[in-house]
Amino acid sequence: MPLTRKAYRAAILHSIADPAEVGIEASYEYFEDGLLVIDNGRISAVGHAGDLLPTLPADIEVTHYQDALITPGLIDTHIHLPQTGMVGAYGEQLLDWLNTYTFPCESQFADKAHADEVADIFIKELLRNGTTTALVFGSVHPQSVNAFFEAAEKLDLRMIAGKVMMDRNAPDYLTDTPESGYQENKALIERWHGKGRLHYAVTPRFAPTSTPEQLALAGQLLGEYPDLYIQTHISENKQEIEWVKALFPERNGYLDVYDHYKLLGERSVFAHGVHLCDDECARLAETGSAVAFCPTSNLFLGSGLFNLPMAEKHKLNVGLGTDVGGGTSFSLLQTLNEAYKVMQLQGARLSPFKSLYLATLGGARALRLEDRIGTLHPGTDADFLVLDYNATPLLSYRLKQANNIAETLFVLMTLGDDRTVLQTYAAGQRVHQR
Ligand code: GUN
Ligand code: ZN
Fold this sequence. Notes:
alpha/beta; Urease, subunit C, domain 1; TIM Barrel; nine-stranded parallel β-sheet; seven-stranded mixed β-sheet; 16 strands
């Protein structure tokens, strides 16, 4: 097969380490006039255009962007497909919000045609916001996950998803049983896990909506197939935490419920974790588990302020999540805008390079995919973005006042959104053009 080699010339920036571990300056690479070379869906070189251009064949196709920044594709470590139609639902906190808005909206996914329609909208929305990989909750219906993976496979996206397991404390029309949930998971895993760039995640919604029997079966599934993910929610809301204590009085807190059923590990992602204590962060870190920080959702649902410095102290893997529809935007740029404010309210800082890390390499590490995505290192998947400095009149004017890449990056994260994403590439193919 002939090589399909292409090159992209622009300013190029990627995160290569956690600023909390190596300091800001060693955490990124920036090429003011950079070149990204792609061979057959993978990155083959990145560096200064002046160094790389002479090494390439004279007839290589080079796309040259002015006033633009190439970054890795963004990684959303927590989002709900069947909540696309209920973003911005008024007035409730978590438990009432679930009953009033979420469950009725998710019930529509019993219909495969509806699931197909929303999966298409959802994937377009991810790509136009520059998100190339997401860890996705389906609904309780297997067809929600089939619809999502069918659409993701057509575009050769690297995506992770699973059907919700929920066998109590939810309306009858939206529950499975331990046995049916287990069998449905097995069928989905066998159809999708490891197919192309797709991965499967066992997805018990949260401790209150699964019986001990179902949580045990979730743990059993993890043992039955290699490299499965598990995703769930934890310690998001104070009422929720009290409810978990009442439902599992024999366990020593919320995390201990999941620990008991063997749900902690290197491919375990726990969403929110707003009210985790020191010991729980230590246990999560010790088991290699990750937390998805979901600032727009935590603010919108009044859940609280995530303590990122505490997670850093424990070297806990943290990714960024939009948590649509509890979250209010598909844009990880806008999610970082809110993350900055969440840190400000706690008297802490969030540097633009830590933000870049969270949205790219940090997310990749949370998902144990840093050898494939999250940076522009040669050998990794060619999932990348072109951000447009002139996306809006205000952005254009504001960026002309920026003196360096740190300021530019921070302004992109404060003013940027889907309009800022000029193009999105996945496995070297353009999958979004603004
Ligand atoms: N906890 C249990 N289910 C959900 C959900 O759908 N969204 C959020 N934000 N928290 C949850
Ligand atoms: Zn969620």
